[in-house]
Amino acid sequence: MVKKFVFLAVILMGFAAPRPASAGCTVSLLDCYGRAAAIDSFWYRAAAGLDCELDYTDCVRRRVLGR
At 49, is the pLDDT very low, low, confident or very high (cuts 50, 70, 90)? Predict the structure, then answer.
């Protein structure tokens, strides 16, 4: 019974579409990660990745709150 429930939950999660509030933000996040990955220095690349995370958080916040 538990295995069937877990299997059903995994299947349903696979069909779940991203919420409209974060859909555009996620694409921007992936683009930002691509730009950050092209940086040669480890520390600058890590800082750029963290900056991508902060931008993503701000984007989702703006989409949800409308500010």
Answer: very high
